[in-house]
Design brief:
The protein is α/β, with parallel strands linked by helices and 761 residues long. Helices cover 36% and strands 11% of the residues. Strand 9, helix 6 and strand 10 form a beta-alpha-beta unit. The longest helix has 31 residues. The chain is globular. It comes from Branchiostoma floridae (Florida lancelet). It is found in: Cell membrane.
């Protein structure tokens, strides 16, 4: 799966790295910050149909974010005069080297970590570097007539659950050579160093996104010197990398820096895309490294002094396994609002968008379930769905759980294997596909200026380590995007790619690079893979139609050995999540109420009277997820007040503005004036007072107008108080209605006591 894909791409990287020729093939390029030396890689020795590529590795795009620059926006790199040797990769950004000990680890995660660990030995906080790959001999005189010069640029943003990965782990040589494009891969801060936030000016968060924006600014300033066109920049990346890219399409600070985006298995509206409680996680970190201080400014200053290895040694994870810990947040600047709200704006719709999902992206959520290869019985089926719904939809758990179980049951053939397949479909659709379809709907609706495309990757790689019943799983499309099969037959020991897989990889790379060039995956270059087969492949006969939600044209490309362009990706179940579930989430209404306010007040009144929510029957309320889901350590649930969140009212004097050519940027959050805060406090207070009055009135009205039923059946069903309860009631009435005697005792009239006792049944 992911680990195998990663290993294949890395082997490709190593072999291409050592294949450069003598010093005569060392290109010299002048950047805005100084001269750099690269190297030529002769690609034809791996595949005679590939052209040579120039590589420039380890180019700094920002100053090292160390010491006082930790937890701050990136600054422009320092200039240099001596030629900088850029023929080797720079260190990767800090990330955990060992698996967490406080929680179960999925098999795919173990394989992934095993494949990554040897590659992450060179690690340092000074890690903001990028790598450039471009065709060696392309120039305006010899370029294909269908191509444009300068070349389109593709910037890769790696994934890795917001905590691990590196741009240097993905070699862009084959993609650049086959597609005649410039490929850029980027390192950026991750985990604590990339996303820690106190939600005030002390640590604003989203440093990873700021790094990516800084890299894009470097590309815009310098890529022309590498044969690239700064006006045709496309971002592409998988899972959490796709989340970051999606957020950049919504960020005003990134406007004008790129033109198109390819989101592979991730979006900013997925349940796992944003950190749910950054303040709490920051407090837990400070508590674990003895940085508790009176305010956040002092606390963050302390965190800047802690060695990064000590910070990464602290295990902090979300108590909800379907949420991220340290990840992007809505900060009001880089991410100015809720992503779904921003997707209705013009900025998002100004980009060309291509999105997609693998056939069984959700397999990773159930791969460690006991006996999953044989199937999942009915008890396990309901256990998995119950745990998932309890975590994601706790307020209407029972209704949604029943609906989900109904929707994902194969009523024509209900058995352990179909139940297992249903659970995998549920996770694939809810966690990945449905958010991407919502994104596609918002982007394409009445949008005639830019394009929207959707795809599914359905081919199980011949080298997949997954059980035979698993089709294309999470990230198994990545080797095909980077062209590993085109050189794999000659150099991979663990991968025996077939000719059909070489054809599939060539087709995908052509689609991706076409989209980067024109916004249309079908042009300017037609599909040609006769260098693999003597006969033309089926992709030459298929036109990838665009996705449109507003005119019944929701087409998508089906990537496999038999490609096709159907309509309506899993339309019935998508409609279930998009149309039905939001209705189930609405608060229940009391019949015959005359206004929404009275409806809500009635429900609140009943909640106060009965002591439980009216939604659902209460079965399973507060149920804890079962052990098969990787629940987090007990420290996650500890409430902490380590650093009181008292925001400093004045601007942090050490926070710096970044002014890049073409656009002035101030990353520090602006604090509103006291007058607006006072107005908000008054408005909220007035609203709460009015709501209390309404709730009191409704409760009083309901109490005094309840129908009195004297039937024998109802009388038998009344709740009778115990003798001790009678005494407690009498005692309470005595304290409320008694008169003080001469010795300070409470005296109650006998008639009052008798009347009180007679009311107790």
């Amino acid at each position: 799966m992911y680990s195998s894909s990663l290993a294949q791409i890395w082997i490709l990287l190593i072999l291409l790295h050592v294949s450069c020729c003598n010093s005569d093939d060392r290109p010299l390029v002048h950047t805005k910050y100084g001269p750099i030396l690269g190297k030529r890689v002769r690609m034809h020795q791996y595949n005679p149909n590939l052209q040579d590529v120039m590589q420039f590795l380890g180019i700094p795009y920002a100053r090292a974010p160390v010491k006082d620059l930790r937890f701050r926006p990136p600054e422009k790199p320092e200039k240099w005069k001596i030629v900088r040797n850029c023929t080797h990769f720079a260190p990767v950004c800090p990330q955990p080297l060992d698996l967490p000990e406080s929680q179960p680890v999925r098999p795919s995660m173990k394989r992934k970590w095993k494949a990554m660990k040897p590659l992450l030995g060179s690690m340092d906080e000074d890690c903001l570097y990028l790598n450039v790959y471009h065709p060696a001999d392309v120039d305006p005189e010899n370029i294909d007539k269908k191509e444009r010069y300068p070349l389109a640029v593709m910037v890769f943003v790696h994934g890795g659950d917001f905590v691990h990965g590196a741009g240097s782990m993905y070699d862009g040589s084959v993609l650049a050579s086959h597609g005649t494009v410039v490929v850029v891969t980027v390192n950026y801060r991750m985990g604590i160093l990339g996303y820690l936030s106190t939600t005030d000016n002390s640590a604003v968060g989203n440093y990873a996104l700021m790094d990516q924006i800084a890299a894009l600014r470097w590309v815009n300033d310098n890529i022309a010197n590498f044969k690239g066109d700064p006006t045709r920049v496309t971002l592409f990346g998988p899972e959490t990398g796709a989340v970051n890219i999606n957020l950049l399409t919504l960020a005003p600070e990134a406007a004008g820096l790129f033109r198109r985006a390819i989101l592979q298995g991730g979006s900013a509206i997925a349940s796992w895309s944003l950190s749910p409680d950054p303040r709490r996680f920051s407090n837990l970190l400070a508590e674990n490294v003895s940085c508790c201080r009176p305010n956040t400014t002092l606390g963050v200053e302390c965190l800047r002094t802690i060695p990064w290895r000590d910070l990464l040694a602290v295990e902090i994870s979300s108590p909800n396994p379907f949420k991220s810990t340290f990840g992007p947040i809505i900060d009001g600047d880089v991410v100015p609002d809720n992503p779904k709200t921003l997707m209705r704006g013009e900025l998002f719709r100004s980009y060309d968008i291509l999105v997609g999902v693998t056939e069984q992206d959700g397999y990773k959520y159930v791969e460690d379930f006991p006996g999953v290869d044989e199937g999942i019985d009915d008890e396990g089926f309901r256990l998995i769905i119950g745990d998932f719904v309890n975590q994601v939809y706790p307020y209407r758990e029972n209704e949604i759980q029943d609906a989900v179980a109904f929707m994902y049951t194969n009523w024509g053939e209900e058995n352990n294997r179909t139940r297992r397949d249903g659970v995998v479909r549920m996770f694939t659709e809810h966690q990945v596909a449905v958010p991407l379809i919502i994104l596609g709907n918002l982007h394409s609706n009445e949008n005639y200026e830019t394009s929207t495309y959707f795809y599914t990757f359905n081919h199980r790689p011949s080298s997949s380590p997954n059980p035979p019943w698993v089709e294309a799983a999470h990230s198994e499309d990545m080797p095909f995007v980077f062209g590993a099969p085109l050189v794999g037959l000659r150099i991979y020991r663990d991968s025996n790619y077939t000719k059909s897989e070489i054809m599939l990889s060539a087709a995908i790379m052509t689609y991706w690079t076409n989209f980067a060039k024109s916004g249309d995956p079908n042009s300017p270059i037609v599909q040609k893979t006769r260098f693999v087969h003597e006969r033309p492949n089926r992709y030459e006969e298929v036109e990838w139609l665009s996705y449109r939600a507003d005119n019944d044209s929701d087409f998508y490309m089906y990537f496999g050995m038999k490609p096709r362009v159907p309509k309506g990706y899993r339309s019935q179940r998508v409609a279930f999540w998009v149309e039905l579930v939001p209705k189930l989430l609405r608060p229940k209404q009391v019949r015959n109420s005359e206004s929404a306010l009275v409806k809500d007040a009635n429900e609140l009144c009943e909640l106060l009277e009965t002591g439980h929510n009216t939604g659902g029957d209460g079965d399973g309320a507060g149920k804890k997820p079962s052990s098969w889901i990787p629940m987090k350590s007990h420290s996650d649930t500890v409430r902490t007040t380590c650093m009181p969140f008292i925001a400093i009212p004045t601007r942090d004097p050490s926070a710096k503005d970044i002014s890049w050519p073409g656009k002035d940027i101030t990353w520090v959050r602006k604090k509103p004036g006291n007058s607006s805060e006072l107005s908000i406090v008054i408005a909220v207070g007035t609203s709460l007072f009015f709501l209390n009055v309404v709730v009191f009135a409704v409760c009083y009205h309901r109490r005094n107008n309840k129908p009195i039923r004297y039937s024998e059946e109802n009388a038998q069903e009344r709740v009778r108080l115990k003798v001790t309860d009678v005494r407690e009631v009498i005692k309470a009435l005595e304290l409320e209605d008694c008169t003080i005697g001469p010795n300070g005792e409470c005296q109650l009239e006998t008639t009052e006591l008798a009347e009180c006792s007679s009311k107790v049944i």
